[in-house]
Amino acid sequence: MRFVGYQRVNLMLRRLGILIVALSVSLSWAPEALAQTSESSDSSEYLIKAGFIYNFAKFVEWPSTSFAQPDSPIVIGILGTDPFGGIIDRIVGDKKIGGRGFIVRRLKWAKDFKDLKDCNILFVSSSEKEHMDDVIRMLRWLPILTVGETPGFAERGGIIRFALEDNRVRLEANVEAARQANLTISSRLLTLARIVQQPPAETRKPG
Predict the structure, then answer these.
(1) In total, how many domains does the chain have?
(2) In this structure, what CATH number is given to the domain that contains residue 156?
(3) pTM to 2 decimal places
(4) Residue 70: inside a domain, yes or no?
(5) Residue from 7, 55, 9, 8 nearest 31 by CA
(6) DSSP letter for each residue of 38-89
(7) pLDDT digits (tens, 9 = 90+) for 186-197
């Protein structure tokens, strides 16, 4: 049974690879396409989400100061319970974007935020709902692409949220939060997202 499961994951990864190539050329691809290629399950859901995270690195621009060297890797942090298993590692393992490879780190909640600040992309697991506001508040003005799946994540200052609607993965994006983080999101990526707003009081940088 384990072998059959492994084959199914590899099949989904191959299908995702084909769609990622298409997405890298044109972001007119809709998430439904992948959702229809496999059974509705946690594995397929997080395969889709992992594929999106990989593509976020293609269509988000970080300030040059975010990387020490031209070939410094893009660090993806997963905070809290990891819903991806090894899927995200296999997706980004041999990939490079602009000469940069990827590192995936599993992180635990800590009040000093040191490990979080070393990330370029931070996925905040739904297991961290209790700490979500603290994470968003502490990272708001840093060039870190925060990604979550908890309801209200984008409205409360997270940059991108995965939402499930009719068993399909959708995107919500907080453009103002991206601006605060000094990140530029491609308009091609934003065409896939529902743009959300955060309260005006949360958009001002502390004095």
Answers:
(1) 1
(2) 3.40.50.2300
(3) 0.80
(4) yes
(5) 55
(6) S-SSHHHHHHHHHHHHHHHHHHEE--GGG-SSTTPPEEEEEESS-SSTTHHH
(7) 998 999 899 998
Residue 169 lies in a domain: yes
Residue-range definition of the domain harbouring residue 55: 2-202
H-assigned helices in the chain = 2-25, 32-35, 42-59, 87-92, 114-117, 132-139, 175-180, 187-190
pLDDT at 59 over 60: yes
Query: Could you tell me the CA-to-CA distances from 204 to 43, 122, 175, 200 in Å, in that order?
Result: 39, 22, 14, 7
**Model confidence over 31-56: pLDDT tens digits?**
444 444 444 346 688 888 999 999 99
The pair phi, psi for residue 75, each rounded to 5°, is: -95, 120
Say which residue the tokens 């990140």 belong to.
183
> Of 104, 74, 72, 100, whose CA–CA distance to 88 is shortest?
104
Is 127 part of a structural domain of the chain? yes
* Residue 207 is assigned to a structural domain of this protein: no
- Distance separating alpha carbons of residues 98 and 133, to the nearest angstrom: 32
